UniProtKB/TrEMBL annotation:
Its cofactor is FMN. InterPro entries: Aldolase_TIM, OxRdtase_FMN_N, Oye-like. One of its GO terms (cellular component) is cytosol. GO terms for molecular function: FMN binding; oxidoreductase activity, acting on the CH-CH group of donors, NAD or NADP as acceptor. This is Alkene reductase. It comes from Marinifilum breve. The keyword Ribosomal protein does not apply. Residues 9-342 form the NADH:flavin oxidoreductase/NADH oxidase N-terminal domain. Gene3D superfamilies: Aldolase class I.
Length: 377
């Protein structure tokens, strides 16, 4: 591949069955906590996503599939009719700009607190690690609070949770989404089931690798049966130990490869690997090669990629799309900037205060490159 072709790799269309995108640059899911009462999406959220519609695919911030699935205050849900109606103007705005958008379906498991949900968090096992989430402060307002001890989820609750994922996927279609991403990463519920330290169950959902991956496959199959495989993806993070108390699972890589062998049969839209964040290990090239031996369908990667490194991993054949997170916060026109080698607006340390909660500041007020030039002139 010539250098020019390498540079263009991010801007090529991708088609896999009925899953089609105009370019291979995705906007990664990022919690921004800007809903209104009832955890309903707002007008400024619609504006925020619309501004970034040039991405080949937008993946929304995590949307809890139920009350008990919540772990962060002010995050938009997908389990009430009011929430569904709140999403509709947002998906319509993205589609009017020619964009595509998947919603991320979220159950946080033990990474929560009853002050957020009103109920005790559920997890594979009643095990807590030091962890903080965004919730109501005792004094007033919102901030980072320590999670609390979860209770072990019962088998009947596992089945209702699987049903909740399927129901949320159906609701996403009603809301106008092009598809869904199941959150199976970052120490949330599905990831908790995968890992030895957080799953010490002795029933069919614990113990062996096959048992620990059971809920993941049951959730994926339930969602596929509800809306079709071409509208379904899943996020995994085998080299990230976020929410795991610093414990790196010795079996997670082997287990992930087994999961991929099963997912290969389903022809999902894509599998999304989250990398290089929080407590992580570098992803070795040997893993990428092993993945491609068992999984030949579309792969998305995310985690501090640049335009150059994103192009390179696509060129090597290890990925088909690259998702960008924080660069999309400050650069709503990230695709245009990449395409034309325009300078990026960098994220400054003070910007972190606007990540969660608030209004338009640090959310919809970042200008495009052309707007910046116009202001300078």
């Amino acid at each position: 591949m010539k250098n020019t072709e390498l540079k263009e790799s991010l801007f090529q269309a991708l088609e896999f069955g009925n899953f089609k995108v105009n370019n291979r640059i995705a906007m990664a899911p990022m919690t921004r906590s800007r809903t209104k009462e009832g955890d309903v999406p707002t007008e400024i959220m619609a504006k925020y996503y619309e501004q970034r519609s040039s991405a080949g695919l937008i993946i929304t911030e995590g949307a809890p599939i139920s009350i008990v699935g919540r772990g962060y205050s002010l995050t938009p849900g997908i389990y009430t009719q009011e929430q569904i109606e709140g999403w509709k103007p947002l998906t319509e705005a993205v589609h009017k700009k020619g964009g595509k958008i998947f919603i991320q379906l979220w159950h946080v498991g033990r990474r929560s607190h009853s002050s957020i949900t009103g109920v005790t968090p559920l997890a594979p096992s009643a095990k807590k690690v030091a962890d903080k989430v965004f919730g109501p402060l005792k004094e007033e307002g919102y901030g980072m609070i320590e999670t609390e001890m979860p209770k072990a989820i019962r088998k009947e609750e596992i089945q209702s949770t699987i049903a909740d994922f399927a129901t949320a996927a159906k609701a996403a279609m009603e809301a106008g989404f092009d598809g869904v991403e199941i959150h199976g990463a970052h120490g949330y519920l599905i990831d908790q089931f995968l890992r030895l330290d957080s799953n010490v169950r002795t029933d069919e959902y614990g113990g062996s690798q096959e048992n620990r991956m059971r809920i993941l496959l049951e959730v994926v199959n339930a969602v596929v049966n509800e809306i079709g495989a071409d509208k379904v993806s899943i996020r995994l993070s085998p080299f990230v130990s976020e929410g795991a108390g610093g414990v790196h699972d010795p079996e997670i890589v082997e287990l992930t490869l087994k999961v991929l062998k099963e997912l290969q049969k389903l022809n999902l839209a894509f599998v999304h690997f989250s990398e290089n964040i929080s407590d992580y290990k570098e992803v070795p090239e040997s893993f990428r090669k092993e993945v491609r031996e068992v999984y030949t369908n579309p792969i998305m990667v995310c985690g501090k990629y640049t335009k150059e490194s994103g192009s390179e991993i696509i060129h090597k054949g290890y990925a088909d799309m690259v998702a960008y997170g924080q660069p999309f916060i400050t650069n709503p026109d990230l695709v245009t900037r990449f395409k034309n080698d325009f300078a990026l607006t960098e994220l400054h340390s003070e910007s972190h205060s606007t990540f969660y909660g608030g209004g338009e500041e640090g959310f919809t007020d970042y200008p495009t490159y052309e707007e910046m030039k116009a202001e300078q002139n």
